[in-house]
Amino acid sequence: MEDVNNRILDAAMRVFSKEGYEGATTKKIAETANVNEVTLFRKFRSKENILKTVISKNQQEAIQTLDSILLMEKSMDIQKCLLDLGNSIMEFMSQRMDFIIMLIAEGRKRDEIGLTLHSFLKKILEHLSEYFTEQITKGKIRNIDPNVAAFSYSSYIFYSNLSAKVCGKERLTDPELEFKNFVDMFTNGILSSSEKEI
Q1: What band does 106 get if pLDDT is binned at 50, 70 and 90?
Q2: Fold type of domain 1-45
Q3: Any idea which residues the entry calls the DNA-binding region (predicted)?
């Protein structure tokens, strides 16, 4: 039973990513999942419910990815943790970038999709913000706004994935080196030590 549900949801994500919400049909989703359309409707009732369930499933997977890394690496050096965390989020997003782009486009047309996407992004930001708050409490990070830190960090990751999708192999820099440099600037700032004293 669970296997059929997952097959339908995985197929739906692929079809939505390729065709968009309007272009995706329940028939195409059923064919891609190798189930009949009646089974699809019995389990999910509508195309909109399928989309909401796909978003919810991806939200849970994203939070589990964040949690597993943050739990594993709480005692780790912050730069190392941010590198590992960012690489995991980037991998997670790169596998779903077409779907994310589709959600952004559809979210502008359909309020319910926009609200669901907003809820998904908010949960990720809340988790990152909690991590930064904890590091501030431990004295590992100076007293900054953890929400701004979470937003800045996740914005870079989103833009980097979007850039990879748009530019492909034409990117100006090596993505791995670029991310290491970003984490260095994120954790150490851009001012030289002499400028910091002013």
Answers
A1: confident
A2: Arc Repressor Mutant, subunit A (1.10.10)
A3: 25-44
